[in-house]
Amino acid sequence: MDENMKGNIMSQGIWIRGIYMLLFALIYSIAEIVFTAVAVFQFLTALVTGRPNELLLNFGQSLSTYIYQTVQFFTFNSDEKPYPFSPWPEGLSSEKTVASAEKKSATVKRKTTTRKATKKAAAKSDESEK
Questions:
Q1: For 91-113, what is each residue's pLDDT tens digit?
Q2: Contact, 54 vs 74, CB < 8 A?
Q3: Helices (H), 1-130
Q4: Percent of the chain predicted with pLDDT > 70
Q5: For labelling alongside 51, which of 11, 60, 97, 122 has CA 20 to 30 A away?
Q6: How far apart are the C-alpha atoms of 30 and 114, rounded to whole Å?
Q7: Cβ contacts of residue 109 below 8 Å, gap of 6+?
Q8: pLDDT digits (tens, 9 = 90+) for 67-91
Q9: Measured distance CA(55)–CA(84) in Å, rounded
Q10: 90, 34, 86, 98: which is closest to 61 by C-alpha?
Q11: Could you give the 3-state DSSP secondary structure of residue 91?
Q12: What is the CA radius of gyration of the chain?
């Protein structure tokens, strides 16, 4: 084994990073579960009310940023340790959250209206062919 490789293996810094990576792997797996729960809840909320929950939009944004920061640390693209060793990432501002929710709600309604109109036109076309 050459001296450079031996020095890398004996480097205390890389082993400490490995311990942090194990810690963040655990946190990441919990974050995935929370992320999935938020996504399912947002879907159900949009299904029932026609728009996503405004409060969860902000949390979902900050959670996805946190997951991104964690992956960046895992892949050695960043040396900055994510939360709890740095501040929790900010989500959207409340104005952006409301605007985003309204825009998404309008898009969902527009698509639904377009689909209904297309189905009605197809039904009329079928009736006129008979």
A1: 876 455 455 556 655 665 666 56
A2: no
A3: 3-10, 12-49, 54-74, 94-129
A4: 73
A5: 122
A6: 39
A7: 50
A8: 999 999 999 999 899 988 888 898 8
A9: 22
A10: 90
A11: coil
A12: 24
> On the CB side of 73, how many CA atoms lie within 13 Å of its CA?
25
Q: Which two tokens stand for residue 36?
A: 């999935």
pTM confidence score: 0.64
Which residue type, as a one-letter code, is found at position 110?
R
pLDDT at position 108? 59
Instruction: Give the integer Cα–Cα distance in Å for 42 and 53.
Output: 6
Going from the C-alpha of 70 to that of each of 29, 53, 91, 92, 114, the distances in angstroms are 11, 25, 16, 19, 40
Residue 52: how many other CB atoms lie within 10 Å = 22
Owner of token pair 């959670």: 63
Q: Yes or no: say if 56 and 85 are a contact pair by the CB < 8 Å rule.
A: no
